[in-house]
Specification:
3-keto-alpha-glucoside-1,2-lyase/3-keto-2-hydroxy-glucal hydratase domain-containing protein; globular; 231 residues; signal; mainly beta; AL/BT2_dom; eight-stranded antiparallel sheet; hydrolase activity; 13% helix; 2 domains; five-stranded antiparallel sheet
Length: 231
């Protein structure tokens, strides 16, 4: 009983300092550090469909998550644009599912991915787009493969962090660094040249843009979307 009381007191203490934050909330430390919520668990007012003012009803709020409930919801993006930023979010994919997170999105191309690099979301075991290592979850799609240590099975929550600062792109999945590359560098140009994007005019040319979430026709969930603009 004494140990139970001690643990309870510790949790209260941590909570009072903001060390613990519930889903879709900012801890006091995050607030102090300048983080902002992109989703508070209650509304989708910061999001809209690609090239549209509104949001499809296929994108719903379910138990404090953003859920793409079925095919036809369309890709969505933040209303705001970001240049240098630190982004954190959690995602979960249905069995056999595929989705993605886009950065530096613009709306001048025909598709959300026309100019935007993608961080892959995938059921690595079941989805047919699992033949290449750089198509697995946490990868910079078709460019840099994520390590196996960063992968989880479908139906489990994954934590992703994407940091872009002065063209340096770093991606972590489940606390494992998956990507570290400088956009526009010679290394980057080589990666693009060896990828499907080699002949895509304007790919990754933007210095700022929207954050996007993909409708690949499969059920996917997101929560704890937080961003910090880097000055």
């Amino acid at each position: 009983m004494k140990i139970r009381h001690q643990l309870y007191a510790l949790l209260l203490t941590l909570g009072s300092f903001g060390a613990l934050a519930a889903d879709n909330q900012l801890s006091q430390q995050e607030k102090n550090d300048g983080w902002q919520l992109l989703f508070d668990g209650k509304d989708l007012s910061q999001w809209r469909n690609f090239k549209q003012d509104g949001l499809s009803d296929k994108w719903v709020i379910e138990d404090g998550t953003i859920k793409l409930s079925g095919k036809g919801g369309g890709d969505i993006l933040t209303k705001a644009q970001y240049q240098d930023f630190d982004l954190k979010l959690d995602w979960k994919i249905a069995e056999g599912g595929n989705s993605g997170i886009f950065i530096l999105v613009d709306e001048t191309g025909s598709q959300i991915y026309s100019h935007a690099p993608e961080i892959q979301i995938l059921d690595n075991e079941r989805h047919p787009d699992n033949k290449l290592a750089n198509h697995l979850s946490g990868s910079l799609y078709d460019m840099i493969a994520s390590p196996a240590a960063s992968h989880k099975i479908a139906g489990e929550w994954n934590q992703v962090r994407i940091r872009l600062e002065k063209n340096q792109l770093t991606i972590w999945q489940n606390d494992v660094q998956a990507v570290s590359v400088e956009i526009h560098s010679p290394e980057w140009q080589q990666l693009v040249a060896a990828s499907k994007f080699a002949n895509w005019p304007g790919f990754a040319a933007n210095r700022s843009g929207h954050i996007g979430l993909q409708d690949h026709g499969d059920v996917v969930w997101f929560k704890n979307l937080k961003i910090k603009e880097l000055k």
